[in-house]
Amino acid sequence: MLHKFPFSIAYADTDAGGIVYHGRYIEIAERARMNWLKEVALPDNDIGFVVRQLNIKYIKPLKLKDSFYVESEITKIGPASLEVEQKFVKDGDIYAILTAKAAYIGKDLHTKPIPEYILEKITKKEG
Amino acid sequence: MLHKFPFSIAYADTDAGGIVYHGRYIEIAERARMNWLKEVALPDNDIGFVVRQLNIKYIKPLKLKDSFYVESEITKIGPASLEVEQKFVKDGDIYAILTAKAAYIGKDLHTKPIPEYILEKITKKEG
Amino acid sequence: MLHKFPFSIAYADTDAGGIVYHGRYIEIAERARMNWLKEVALPDNDIGFVVRQLNIKYIKPLKLKDSFYVESEITKIGPASLEVEQKFVKDGDIYAILTAKAAYIGKDLHTKPIPEYILEKITKKEG
Amino acid sequence: MLHKFPFSIAYADTDAGGIVYHGRYIEIAERARMNWLKEVALPDNDIGFVVRQLNIKYIKPLKLKDSFYVESEITKIGPASLEVEQKFVKDGDIYAILTAKAAYIGKDLHTKPIPEYILEKITKKEG
Fold first, then answer.
1. What's the ipTM?
2. What does CATH list as the number for C3-123?
């Protein structure tokens, strides 16, 4: 399943180079993931997903007032972790690709298996 | 005219107090103003509105995953400046009120009269 | 007592207007206040100071690579609240003035008197 | 050469998980690089270094009021690009490792050889 999150660039996202600040892509990607899971309640006071590693490739710069989509997709699933790929897409062109590895953490602060219904939510065919 | 901008809180917006970081309201308010003016092209390479003074009153704290509206309204119009009031409203309750005074700046970096069609856009009765 | 906090502007602080983003002054001011209180431990699991109202006047724009001081001073003290004024000063010129009103909050989430030793720390003559 | 940049965590850097927001490490790393190059003037209106790819591994979470160093070191040098490794180190422990690949961009927006005196500044034995 591909989750699409629309976003528009404000001054807060840009820097003096006249483009979107490279660190902002990470925030916008997190916003997209939150939107994806917004209806998912975590069980048992679990902490939930915690980012362990993150890779981002900047291909073309996004700019002030640009409107685009973050397209998110699960690319790997382990017993207590997963990998998500997030593309910043404007008018069919990819501006950046982010890959995040996240572990699922329980309330005891240790990794634990991702609950079945969360896996279903983020891997099902229809969005 | 009242402009309504929907927004949802992600981790990026929060702080270790468990609530939305007080500085983030300023960014979200700017995002709402950008959305309001997104179809307005500035003439003559004008710089546009620049915030000169800003006041914000924190009434109740917004939290992670909260969805709400920023309701923006022009409250004063001067020859080369205006005042906008922006309320953070969730389920009918006001969480914060921001007032911003902005000057309109031309490409020569000096204030100049706000173009007529921009005034019309932000003051007309219907949104 | 005047607390001075040195800071330098990076790309993260700027926006596409080529100047420091207006919302960033609020973050930098908070950083200065944290530095002021860094050796002060809060008693009894108190929450501590929470900003209730904030006013900022932008006088001149700070820019990329600018180095300056945030000069903070207590301007009012109430039984359970205080007001701090923070000036952004570069080479003797004031670029922005922020005034924050903060309440002191205990662990029960209600206001309570500011502990005596904290008042002493932030009001004593010598820094 | 190893460049060391001291930093302290304020509320602005944290999130509702009670730790430093994962996106903030990227900003703090940029601040450290700016500090490194603060005395280096770019020639010929060059744009300078632009981050093309970024990888970060989160090992242990930094928290509110933590004071630490960002230790930066050039790990690869190409004709018009370089790779820098940046470690977040508190009390001898590594909390995160960031690797950034940056291209050197001239005023015509194309890559060009990194000026000799900049290479010297960031690769010399003594800091």
1. 0.93
2. 3.10.129.10
